[in-house]
Amino acid sequence: MSTRPLRAVIVGAGIGGLCLAQGLHAAGIDVAVFERDAAPDARLQGYRLNIEPVGSRALHDCLPAHLWQVLVATAGDPGPGMGVFTERLRLLMREDAPPAERDPSEQTHAVSRVTLRRLLLAGLDDVVHFGKEFTGYRQNADGTVTAQFADGTSATGDLLVGADGVNSRVRRQLLPHARRTPVPGVGIGGKLRLDDGAAWLPEEMTSTKNMFLPKRDFLFTAVFRRRETDGATVERIGDQMRAVGLDPELLVQDAKDDDYVMWAYVAHRRVLPADLLDAPAGGRGQRLRELVTSRLADWHPDLRELIAQTPADTIERFDFATAERVKPWPTTNVTVLGDAIHSMPPVGGLGGNAALYDAGALRRALIAVGQGEDDLLPALAAYERAMLNNGFAAVRAATMYLRLATLPSRAVRTIARTFFRLCGVLPPLRRAIFSD
Ligand SMILES: Cc1cc2nc3c(=O)[nH]c(=O)nc-3n(C[C@H](O)[C@H](O)[C@H](O)COP(=O)(O)OP(=O)(O)OC[C@H]3O[C@@H](n4cnc5c(N)ncnc54)[C@H](O)[C@@H]3O)c2cc1C
């Protein structure tokens, strides 16, 4: 087994690429990340990301302890378990809540994307290179691989990781046969602030995430509540943050976006009138809200009110596509992670968690190589098997939820509702299916 120091080249400074970079950097492995965006703040998005235990474990393992602690302190609490209801708010099933005493690395966290990005970039100034658009790679006779960038520069390493998202150029060169297909669903989502004016919201909607399964279409809600006030966070760990060069005021300000209920309405694409299909993003919130309201005519008044009260400027539309399952390929020194290989509709909030899982698994594999316990190609082959299994299981789950929302069949709906009702009354069945 080789004990030569490893050099890893990562393309893409998104969630998965940066989590891997943190984990390798902390383990003393030489790593460089190349990102197309010109600067760290080029694309900051305001909404929160639900990090499930699978993602929390990876972040806990990859991030230095002080950054993990800040992540937990600034994250919101998405509440215990998930409820499944009819459109008349009749409970079909409630997923079991995880034990309260669980370690934070085994819990769910609602993290601000902006804060997560700042934490993932912290301490990596010399590692992450912005303004580097990857154009292709070349595998060299000495076993190394060279990534080429649009500005004419290049970077060579022992392995190349494509963490470059849904339109991955690394994947296109490595697996030209891999396909992404549009799916006929459409998502419409909005945010309602949890201030005094929202006191009428049913308790379930302000305390946990929920799925509403009517006779057609589908609604999902999630709650984002901070665990403590900004002042309390700064007071509690402000000194620790400053000691490692983080600005606590800036971090809590980023994480601050108000507590809110997020909803996502999912239906077949044909519910969209032709003019809304092509309408430009800005200013279509009002029309989208009217559309959802018209589909909810016989739903419980509280659900209709949720949509009616949501400010139009928070309402957006999402089109969906999904990666087709890729058969394992002969492993080389070029690999992929996250959306680059197993992208999926955001129904269920699984994509980012799958990218984090990959980062955690690849980190472990490369540490074993760096310590001389394994050779690079067998380690990468084992990583790719685990990554494909986990990633495409998430793709299947997201696709199943989407099918449920878009299939016109009443019979399928009835079976699904019966299934959740059975899970509701049979705890062993529920635990077998829904415990992570
Ligand atoms: C509305 C919405 C809500 C979501 N909510 C959740 C949620 O709650 N939980 C969850 O787990 N997931 C969620 N997701 C999915 C999640 O955002 C993605 O699955 C996740 O970001 C994938 O991470 P990644 O690192 O693979 O790719 P990305 O985060 O997309 O990163 C890819 C990076 O590669 C860079 N790049 C691309 N091409 C090049 C190139 N040629 N050269 C150099 N760099 C390049 C990009 O600029 C980008 O920075 C949601 C998605 C959407 C759309």
Provide structural commentary:
This protein is globular. Strand 10 and strand 11 (154-157) form a beta hairpin. The strands form four sheets. Strands 4, 5, 6, 13, 14, 15, 16 and 17 form an eight-stranded mixed sheet that branches. It has a five-stranded parallel sheet with strand order 8-2-1-12-18. It has a three-stranded antiparallel sheet with strand order 9-10-11. The chain has helices at residues 15-26, 53-62, 65-74, 113-121, 169-174, 203-207, 230-243, 248-255, 274-277, 285-295, 301-309, 339-342, 351-370, 376-406, 410-425, 427-434, and strands spanning 7-11, 30-34, 48-51, 76-77, 82-85, 91-94, 109-112, 128-129, 134-139, 145-149, 154-157, 159-162, 180-193, 209-212, 218-226, 260-268, 316-323, 334-336. By secondary structure, the chain is of the alpha/beta class. Bound molecules: flavin-adenine dinucleotide. The site of flavin-adenine dinucleotide has 30 residues, from helix 1, strand 3, helix 12 and helix 13.
Summarize the structure.
The chain has 16 helices and 18 strands. The protein is an alpha/beta fold and 436 residues long.
Q: What's the SSE blueprint?
A:
Layout: E1 7-11, H1 15-26, E2 30-34, E3 48-51, H2 53-62, H3 65-74, E4 76-77, E5 82-85, E6 91-94, E7 109-112, H4 113-121, E8 128-129, E9 134-139, E10 145-149, E11 154-157, E12 159-162, H5 169-174, E13 180-193, H6 203-207, E14 209-212, E15 218-226, H7 230-243, H8 248-255, E16 260-268, H9 274-277, H10 285-295, H11 301-309, E17 316-323, E18 334-336, H12 339-342, H13 351-370, H14 376-406, H15 410-425, H16 427-434
Parallel strand pairs: 1-2, 1-12, 2-8, 5-14, 12-18
Antiparallel strand pairs: 3-7, 4-15, 5-6, 9-10, 10-11, 13-16, 13-17, 14-15, 15-16
